[in-house]
Design brief:
Blueprint (H helix, E strand, L loop, with lengths): L11 E7 L8 E4 L4 E5 L6 H11 L33 E9 L25 E9 L4 E5 L2 E3 L1 H10 L9 E2 L6 H4 L2 H11 L3 H101 L5 H42 L5 H21 L2 H26 L3 H87 L11 H21 L4 H65 L3 E6 L4 E3 L9 E3 L4 E6 L13 H18 L4 E5 L7 H17 L1 E5 L3 H6 L2 E7 L5 E6 L1 H9 L3
Helix pairs in contact: 5-9, 5-10, 5-11, 6-8, 6-9, 7-8, 11-12, 12-13
Bound molecules: adenosine-5'-triphosphate (ATP).
Length: 737
């Protein structure tokens, strides 16, 4: 903020009062010069003018306005019975400020009003305040009704703070002397225009406290939601894992189903391609086997053959036995006859030849090896012997034995013929049986071959059926396990080997278990997590903003503190120096100083529950050393000395940081003639720095003024204002009601 230091231009232009206190009629005081003096008898209404100025500038204290309520500010009627004036309903006062551009003031920095005292476009600023009997107050700024706040804000721009230290009320000039060090410090700060920074500091502190409270609240809110947020985050993470698992599982299931469908189709085709030729071949073989078996005929063929052969053999041996018996009979009969014949004249050669022939035949027969041949030979030999015996009979001539032998031979021949027939029959039987056996053997081998082949094929078919069944089972399993996705599934990918299938199924199973463990996805939780997280992020941002604000407030506070400290130190040094100078000038020597007090430890009252020592805030101490006097404390000063000391300090403060104007109400009241002259000289000096309105009874002061107003009050109790010359002042002063 810019504090206007009015030096080249005078700010106060005019004061208009109407109905205010004793000023029942409207009066207007122009302030065309640096020093304006208002003079008049006691009780004429001079201080009411200072009150009016104070009031327009927003004074809120009735005590400072010397009243108790708003009504006390309105003319309440006056005069005696003959000149009675009735009370008014409204009081008003206006201060008109000069707001012409000041060439001495640096341009810029203000949006409006450039190098003007008030940052508004108007060349004149009229500030008015009105009060009605009902206590209603209003403020008007250049014809616009405004709030007190606006007035205070605008005034602060020209260094007219709310404390109104630039209006020194009657008897108030030594207030600074008996104020506490802390109050003094505050007054000096005010005079140095630092109060505004103090206020800002307080404001920053208040904001800081509020911000820190907010930080605590936000932190506590964040702490409150933290566990829930953590829980939700965990749940969400789990769900994200689950959805990741689900994605993996879906992909894996899709892969498995695709590949399984392809593999099963492939296996089915393979089974089919193996099965058909095998089944066809098996059919052919079964037919062949059936036929072959039928061709082999009934069982028991061999038994029959052997039974028949045995029967023939038995017939043969019985025939042979009978014949041999007969032959032995015949032999015996022959032998008897031959023995007789040989002796009758048959040559030995003839017998020898026959016997040799028989022997030769028998030998041949023994070599031949077959029963047939042996029998034939025996038969032939028998015949030869019989014929030889016949010849012998002729020679010898016999009668009876010869006839019996022939009959026997007939029977034997018959038997032999019968035997021959049976042998032939047996031979035929054997021959047939052998041919049949060979044929059967061949058929059997064929049948065996077919049967073996059929067995192999059936083995293979069993394999094929097993595969078919396995494929079927797998298909059922697939439908059972993956029914849901089968509808849209198409065969694809690589064929599954047994181990790949097992691996995939194991993986899918594991994922399914993990997914089950992970639990389902709860949209509500996800939403809540999202919201809670956003809230936390918002709070975090809020916290950061607040921390940022705290930081910048602390910076502002520190900056203000530094500035106040720096400006205060510099200002105080200046005031201190001027105080000393004015003091020496007034007292013709001596010493005066205003300086920071040492912090003191003060003890708390015993009644306080917490009895401890605290350090008093530092303030300002005033030390004076009046020439030829030993003054230890301000209390030891005489009334005049007090007045002079306070004037020295007041002038020092006003010179160090001149206010736009200064109203001094009878500050000079206690001065003697010599001091009055010094005072007037100082006043002239101060007048160069600030516009002065002085209410006085003092001639020296009046002399210093450029313009004089006389205030009188007649019997009507109404204050009158007249512009007067110095010479007329005596008259005005002498005037009494
Ligand atoms: P002194 O020189 O003694 O200090 P003064 O000139 O400063 O006197 P003021 O104190 O300004 O005089 O004026 C006081 C006068 O104003 C009194 O006469 C008082 O009756 C009158 N007065 C104050 N308030 C009102 C009011 N509301 N209505 C009418 N008159 C009032």
């Amino acid at each position: 903020m810019r504090i206007a230091r009015i030096k080249s231009i005078m700010l106060l232009k005019r004061l208009e009062i109407s109905g205010f206190k004793s000023f029942a009629k409207a009066v207007s005081l122009e302030f065309p010069t640096r020093i304006t003096a208002i003079v008049g008898p006691n009780g004429s209404g001079k201080s009411n003018i200072a009150d009016a100025i104070r009031w327009v500038l927003g004074e809120q204290s009735f005590k400072h306005l010397r009243g108790k309520k708003g009504e006390d500010l309105i003319f309440g009627g006056g005069g005696d019975a003959s000149r009675s004036v009735s009370r008014l309903s409204k009081a008003s006062a206006s201060l008109i400020f000069n707001n012409l551009p000041d060439p001495a003031r640096p341009a810029g920095g203000q949006q409006a009003g450039k190098n003007k005292a008030f940052p508004v476009e108007f060349d004149e600023v009229a500030m008015s305040r009105r009060v009605y009997r009902d206590g209603i107050n209003d403020y008007v700024l250049n014809d616009s009704q405004v709030r007190l706040k606006d007035i205070i804000e605008l005034l602060s721009k020209v260094g007219l703070g709310a404390s109104q230290h630039h209006i020194i009320a009657q008897g108030d000039s030594d207030r600074i002397l008996y104020a506490s060090p802390k109050e003094r410090k505050s007054m000096v700060e005010e005079a140095l225009g630092l109060k505004i920074f103090e206020l800002k500091k307080t404001e920053a502190e208040r904001k800081l406290a509020a911000t820190e409270e907010n930080v605590r609240q936000v932190e506590s809110l964040r702490r409150e939601i933290a566990p829930h947020l953590k829980y939700l985050a965990l749940q969400t993470e789990k769900m994200k894992n689950a959805s990741e698992l689900r994605k993996n599982l879906d992909a894996l299931e899709k892969e498995y189903v695709g590949r399984e469908l392809k593999t099963l189709a492939h296996e089915e085709a393979e089974v089919e391609s193996r099965k058909r030729p095998l089944e066809e071949r098996a059919g052919i073989l079964e037919k062949e086997i059936r036929e072959s078996e039928e061709g082999l005929g009934k069982e028991g063929e061999a038994e029959k053959f052997f039974a028949e052969t045995n029967k023939l053999d038995e017939a043969l041996s019985s025939l042979a036995r009978r014949r041999r018996e007969l032959e032995r009979e015949a032999g015996r009969m022959e032998a008897t006859s031959t023995a007789r014949a040989i002796g009758d004249g048959v040559s030995k050669e003839k017998i020898k030849a026959v016997l040799m022939e028989v022997v030769s035949d028998l030998e041949a027969a023994s070599r031949s090896g077959t029963m047939e041949a042996v029998r034939n030979t025996i038969f032939a030999a028998t015949q030869k012997i019989y014929s030889f015996l016949e010849s012998l009979n002729g020679v010898g001539g016999r009668s009876t034995p010869r006839g019996n032998t022939s009959q026997l031979k007939e029977v034997i021949l018959g038997l032999e013929k019968e035997e021959e027939e049976i042998s032939a029959k047996k031979l035929e039987l054997q021959k047939n049986y052998e041919i049949r056996a060979i044929k059967l053997q061949k058929e059997g081998a064929f049948l065996r071959g077919r049967m073996e082949e059929l067995a192999k094929i059936k083995d293979n078919l069993r394999d094929v059926y097993a595969s078919e069944e396995k494929t079927g089972v797998l298909k059922k399993e697939l439908e059972f396990d993956f029914g849901g996705i089968l509808q849209n599934a198409r065969p694809f990918g690589e064929l599954l080997s047994g181990s790949a299938r097992a691996d995939l199924k194991k993986k899918i199973e594991r994922l399914r278990i993990r997914l089950e463990e992970a639990g389902g996805v709860n949209e509500e939780v996800l939403k809540e997590y999202d919201e809670t997280k956003k809230r936390d992020e918002f709070l975090d941002k809020e916290l950061k903003d607040l921390q940022e604000t705290t930081k910048s407030l602390k910076e502002i506070f520190e900056e203000l503190e530094m500035r106040v400290e720096r400006d205060f130190d510099a200002g105080l040094a200046k005031i201190n120096k001027l105080f000393g100078e004015f003091f020496r000038e007034i007292f013709g020597g001596g010493k005066a100083e205003i300086k920071m007090s040492k912090p003191q430890k003060i003890e708390k009252d015993e009644d306080e529950s917490w009895r401890e020592e605290i350090e008093e805030e530092p303030g300002l101490d005033i030390n004076v050393d009046i020439p030829r006097k030993r003054i230890k404390s301000l209390n030891m000063l005489s009334g005049g000395e007090r007045a002079l000391t306070s004037i020295a300090l007041l002038f020092a403060m006003s010179t160090a940081n001149p206010p736009p104007f200064l109203v001094l109400d009878e500050t000079d009241a206690a001065l003697d003639e010599a001091n009055s002259a010094k005072y007037a000289a100082m006043l002239r000096e101060l007048g160069k720095k600030t516009q002065l309105i002085v209410i006085t009874h003092n001639r020296e002061t009046m002399k210093a003024a450029d313009v004089l107003y006389g205030v009188t009050m007649g019997g009507d109790g109404i204050s009158k204002l007249l512009s007067i010359k110095f010479e007329e002042a005596e008259v005005v002063l002498a005037k009494r009601r």
